[in-house]
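EI: anyone free to look at a 291-residue chain?
SC: sure, send it
EI:
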Amino acid sequence: MSRLILTEKIRETFGTFVKWGTCFNYVNFNHKDLGYALTGLAHIEPFFKLNSEWRISVKLGTGLAYMSNPYHPTDNPQNLTYSSRIAFPLYVGANTYYFFNKQTAVKINLSYQHISNGGFKQPNLGINYPVIGLGLEHALDTYSIPPKKALGQYEKERCVGLLMGYSIKEDTTNTNNQHVATAMLFYSRQVTRINSITGAISTEYQQIAQSSNALDEWSIAPMIGNELIFGKLLFGQQIGAYILRGESAPNALLQNYYLLYKINSNLRTGVNLKVHGRVADYLSFQFGLVF
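SC: here you go
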């Protein structure tokens, strides 16, 4: 269920027209240990090509998932991918449409999806899977695409800010909740209407039960990344390497995936998922100041 927004304000903001909407999915993982997932996602879909017949877009989404068969030490000990009924799906994909009349199109979709609980409960390796989809899409009303116009000038933003984050994650023994606090000094430079290049220094304190060395609970990592700009929503992807590596980090490289909302020109809030390879470490809530 979605809506295509064909206003000039949207086109000036994104450089193109976009869809926004929700989708509900049932996914059977075809394995008795993994069971199935019911997911609900909110998504945004900017179009790169938009004419009467052929259309091409990208699609980003996130939401909530119900997982049918979580890890249990006696009933389901083999499932190390998720251990809670509620998890968080992430979605990125590309779509190609062919409209054979004004309201109905054949649609081909390629996507990559991730589901994990963000480290709130262990084990939590996460499930990562690609999807190829073929289907039909029908518009409830007839409409026409406005003709192309020259886009107006826009000011490229540069900003420096500080993001503070907090999370509670379960340790690998499934017995204790560990506190995680982060501080990230970042720089962002807009390069197009819909994306910025970012750089950051992340400092992290991650509590470790019975740690003999306080320094083992700290990590520092420089990061670089790309940030997609959807109006007041920012979706970023960053990769970095530790220069101080805490005991909880399984390898030298890390990734961040974040979704932030611009409250105003100086305040931001949202969530951040920290990942090592294909394994989610934790999901944190963030609040930031832009100087």
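EI: The chain has two domains: 2-138, 158-290.
SC: 👍
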